[in-house]
Amino acid sequence: MTFTVATANLKIEVPTSRNLGSGFPGQTVSGQLGTVTVIDERAAADATWTASVVSTQFDTGTDQETEVIPPNLVNYWSGPATATSGNGTFVPGQPTRADRVSLERPRTAFSKTSGSGNNSASWNPTLEITIPQHAVGGLYSGTVTHSVA
After folding, report:
1. Which of 59, 60, 71, 110 is deepest in the core (most CB within 10 A)?
2. How far apart are CA 12 and CA 78, in angstroms?
3. Is residue 71 a contact partner of residue 54, using CB atoms and an 8 Å limit?
4. Tens of pLDDT along 25-66?
5. Alpha carbons 85 and 39: distance in angstroms, whole number
6. DSSP letter string over 21-81?
């Protein structure tokens, strides 16, 4: 007699949209993005993973210098885990505001550095965007992308 332990995928679930409110040139807008969750159903002997985050520029739909906020002015911190399941060590990329990082290049948002079997981790990251002094009024939008491998 034999049987198979089924496996599935490693995936990440993220909020679809957030409004961080408004601010004047020279100010900072910030807010939590909502719960990000990594779900690891690979049933692996070495069930480690790293979730990454990166941002595009925020703009009004044009590429005019006064209507663009570059990603180096977009700061992120993961905060601690809000929930975990499975065994192993779960590590926040930036546990506190003091650890925040700019998102002009991919950064580690969260990771699992040891353990086996199915697992999951959730966190509610904060985004902080500095509005340049030269920015003009308007609705700015951009994309913050989380991925896991």
Report:
1. 110
2. 14
3. yes
4. 999 999 999 999 999 999 999 999 999 999 999 999 988 999
5. 9
6. ----TT-EEEEE---EEEEE-S--SS--EEEEEEE--EESSS--GGGEE-GGGEEEE--SE
Q: Are 117 and 34 in contact (CB under 8 A)?
A: no
40: burial class by Cβ within 10 Å (0-12, 13-18, 19+)? buried
Q: Which among 19, 8, 30, 11 has a CA at the least distance from the CA of 146?
A: 11
Spatial separation of the C-alpha atoms in residues 70 and 20, rounded to whole Å: 16
Integer Cα distance of 148 and 139 in angstroms: 30
Q: How many Cβ atoms from other residues are within 10 Å of residue 114's Cβ?
A: 12
Residue indicated by tokens 């990329």? 93
Average pLDDT score, the chain: 96
Q: Which residue has the tokens 């790293």?
A: 50
Question: Which of 38, 21, 28 lies closest to 133 in space, CA to CA?
Answer: 28
Residue type, 111: S
